[in-house]
Every structure is written in structure tokens, then in C-alpha cells.
Design goal:
10 strands; 22% strand; alpha+beta; Glutaredoxin
Length: 200
């Protein structure tokens, strides 16, 4: 009986941790992570931007691969408007060698990434955000020196066929913020591969 109660308590704790993270309206803490060019990229040095499009992604996930070109296009369009894209890979490289930092560098070169591709080696940033999938997006508004979460979830509603996308969740959120309007859809469910967490 005691063992059963203990197991149930551990399950509840795990469930709580699994859903922890930022919701629309929350303040996101800053981060400083290594980019594929070897330099550190930090939110502290992005003070002049109006906001950020943060996307948790990786190399190996088929769903993430579907969005590589879309992220390039998004960054090209929104960086001049003050909302650059920042991609973060948090997968445990021991579990998925394809997601190691060295492989991230190769992928960024192969696909001509025009946005920072950061390595969250400790997985602290993913845990703080509550990211569980790749890809999973967060739109942050920079106001009053704080990073406020305005959207979290899927990038859009059709990973396989970009031409058939009906709801551009991330870009709709950014467009609304740029025009001073409320974000039409503040949260959706991400669809993709589960982030591979460290076991130790």
C-alpha cells in the first residue's frame, strides 16, 4: 500500500513538472546560449528588438525538418520588423547523436539557416519554458524591459503542405502585436517529436 502511494505521488510530481512552463501573459526569463557559430546569444543583448519568435526544434525530428525553410522565411520577413527568429535545440545528444552541437553546426550550414540556432545543453531553458515538442513556438513581446509570452504552441496548422496552411498561428500573433491588437489565438497544442530529456 505504501509503495503504491509513493509511486502515485511520484507520478503526480512528474505530471506537474511536465505541464509546468510559461503561459500567455507570463514573463519569460532571459537566456544565454551558444550559437552554431560558437558565439553566445543572449536575450540581454536583444534589448532593441520589439520581441522574439522562439522555436524549440532539433535536427532529427521529421516534423521539425518540415519547418526549416519556413523559419528562414519567417526570419527574413520579421527581423526588419523587430521580431527575429531564435531556434533552440534542447535534445539530449547522448540519446540522439544527430542532435549534437556538431551536427547542429552542419545542419545550419546545409540549410543556410539565417537565424541563430542555439544549443540548450543543460535543458534548463526548455524546462523553464515548458517546451515538450519539436517544433514548439513562443512569441515574446519586449515591453518594460521584460519578455512577455504572447503566444505558445504550433507554428501553423499544416506541417506537410505549407500551401494548405489555414492558420498561421505564429505570424498571426506577431502581426497582431505589430499592429497593436490582441493576439487572436494565444495558445495551441504543438505537434511534433517529444524532447529527449537527460536521464541523469
Amino acid at each position: 500500500m505504501i509503495r503504491s502511494v509513493t509511486i502515485f505521488a511520484v507520478f503526480l510530481l512528474y505530471a506537474t513538472l511536465a505541464v509546468a512552463g510559461y503561459k500567455p501573459g507570463d514573463e519569460a526569463t532571459g537566456f544565454s546560449l551558444r550559437n552554431v557559430d560558437g558565439k553566445l546569444v543572449s536575450t540581454e543583448k536583444m534589448g532593441k528588438t520589439k520581441g522574439l519568435i522562439v522555436v524549440f526544434t532539433c535536427n532529427h525530428c521529421p516534423f521539425a525538418k518540415l519547418y526549416q525553410e519556413r523559419l528562414n522565411e519567417m526570419n527574413t520577413h520579421y527581423t526588419p520588423l523587430g521580431f527575429p527568429v531564435v531556434a533552440i535545440s534542447s535534445n539530449d545528444a547522448d540519446a540522439v547523436p544527430e542532435d549534437s552541437f556538431e551536427e547542429m553546426v552542419k545542419r545550419a550550414k546545409e540549410k543556410h539557416y539565417n537565424f541563430p540556432y542555439l544549443y540548450d545543453e543543460t535543458q534548463d531553458v526548455a524546462r523553464a519554458y515548458g517546451a515538450v515538442k519539436t517544433p514548439q513556438a513562443y512569441v515574446l513581446l519586449h515591453e518594460g524591459g521584460k519578455w512577455i509570452v504572447k503566444y505558445t504552441g504550433a507554428i501553423d496548422d499544416n506541417g506537410k503542405e505549407p500551401q494548405k496552411v489555414k492558420n498561421h498561428f505564429v505570424t498571426d500573433a506577431v502581426d497582431a502585436l505589430l499592429s497593436g491588437r490582441e493576439v487572436p489565438v494565444a495558445a495551441t497544442k504543438s505537434v511534433g517529436c517529444a524532447i529527449k530529456w537527460k536521464t541523469e
